[in-house]
Amino acid sequence: MTINVSELLAKVPTGLLIGDSWVEASDGGTFDVENPATGETIATLASATSEDALAALDAACAVQAEWARMPARERSNILRRGFELVAERAEEFATLMTLEMGKPLAEARGEVTYGNEFLRWFSEEAVRLYGRYGTTPEGNLRMLTALKPVGPCLLITPWNFPLAMATRKVAPAIAAGCVMVLKPARLTPLTSQYFAQTMLDAGLPAGVLNVVSGASASAISNPIMEDDRLRKVSFTGSTPVGQQLLKKAADKVLRTSMELGGNAPFIVFEDADLDLAIEGAMGAKMRNIGEACTAANRFLVHESVADEFGRRFAARLEEQVLGNGLDEGVTVGPLVEEKARDSVASLVDAAVAEGATVLTGGKAGTGAGYFYEPTVLTGVSTDAAILNEEIFGPVAPIVTFQTEEEALRLANSTEYGLASYVFTQDTSRIFRVSDGLEFGLVGVNSGVISNAAAPFGGVKQSGMGREGGLEGIEEYTSVQYIGIRDPYAG
Ligand code: NAD
Fold first, then answer.
1. Domain segments of the chain: what residues?
2. Of the candidates 123, 99, 81, which has an alpha carbon nearest to the alpha carbon of residue 38?
C-alpha cells in the first residue's frame, strides 16, 4: 500500500488530548517535529504547559472510579478493537515512525507488529486478574486478596520505539483499570498522537488516556508528580532522567516502573555456531540503527574465533544501504538527531585515538540527515568510553577473551543490567553463563528476544519492574488483603 505522506500527516492530531478533545496549549505554544533523514520540519504540535499537564490529570482523575468499575471484559474488548484498528492502520503507523524517527520502513512495520501485540496480549490478560482465597495457618481468619487498579498513572516514553514504548504501558494500564496521562518524547510524538486517536476510535472512554506532548518534559512531569492524586509513574528512557524521577517520586511515595539504559554484552564462545552469531549480531546491533536499550554494546568474542567473527560481521555491514528509511532497499536509516550522530562519532574517534582499529565504517555520512556508517572496531581497550557508555548507533566494538570466567567478568563489569546475549552450542554452558549474568534479559543464540508475552526489564541501574508477560499488568495493580473472621474461630 502506498501512503500519501501529506494526507497521513493531516490525519495526525496536533493538539493535546485532554478528556474528550484535542486542544491547543493554554499559552498557544507549539513545537516542531523534524524528519531526521532530511532535517525538514514535518509537523508542528501544541506544546503543553504545566497548566495543561494538570488539566490532563484532572480529566483522568474525573473518570478513574467509573473506569475501574467497568467490567474487565469491556476493557478487554476495547483493547482488542484497538489491536484490530492498529493492524488496519499498520502502514500508516509504520510510515509515521519512519518519518519522525528515521528507522527503515521494513523495521517500522516490524515495530507495528511487535508494539500492537501488547494490545492483544493485555486484552487477554485483562480478564485474568485473579486474587487468592485461603485460611490463615492459625485458622482464625479467611484471607481474600483483590488486585485493584493502582490509580492515575503518568507514562513517559522515549523516542526510539514510538509505538511499542507507548503500547507497552498504555495496554496494561487499560487492562488493569487505570487512567493515565501519556507524555511522549519531544522528538517522536506523532505516533503517540495517532495511537491515542486510534484508541478513541476503538471506543476508549474520554479521559482514560490523555496525551500531553511538549517541548519541556519537566514542565509537564513536575506538576503532575507533585499532585497528590497521582499514584504511579512509569518511565522508559535514560538512567540519569530515571534517577531524577525516582527522587521526585520519593516525595509522594509513588509506585514506579523504570525501564532505563543498557550496555548489553554480546558473548560469542569458541563453540558458537558462527552463522547464528553473525545473524544474531545483525539483529542485536543493527535493529533500530543501534538505537535500542537492548542493543549489543560490547562484543566479547573468544580469541580463537574473533578474527573470523569480525571479518564476517564487517562484510555483512558493508552490504547495508544507508539512506532515507522511506526509500526502497534502504536498510540503515539516520540517527535521530544531530547530537546523537555527533555523540556516536566522538565515541568512535576517542576509541580510535586510544588504539582501536576500524574494520569497516568509522565515519559520519555527508549531506542532509544524521547518518553514521555501520562500523566494526577491534583492539578496543577495556576502559574505552565506547564500552562503558550506551553507543546508541550502528557501531560494534569487539573485545577478545580467553576463558568463560573472563567473559562473565567483562560482561558484568557495568552498572547496567538490561539485555545480554550468549552464543554457544553447549547446554551446560547456557545455564552456567545465564546464572552468572547480572542482566534482566538473556538472549541465547538469538539477537532479538523482545516479545509481548515475555517480561521485559532490567536489574542494577537499568531499572525496576517488568513490561509485558504475566508481570506487566501487576505494575498497574495493588494488592488489597481482606481478612474475615473465620466462622469456626474460638
Ligand atoms: P530520555 O531519558 O532523554 O527521555 C525519555 C523521556 O523522558 C522523554 O519523553 C523525555 O522527554 C522525558 N524526559 C527527559 N527529561 C525529563 C525530565 N527531567 N523530567 C521528566 N521527563 C523527562 O531518553 P531518550 O533519549 O528519549 O531515550 C533513550 C534512552 O532510553 C536510552 O538510555 C535507552 O537505553 C532508554 N530506553 C530504555 C528502554 C527500556 O525498556 N529499558 C527502552 C527504550 C529506551
1. 5-260+463-480, 264-451
2. 99
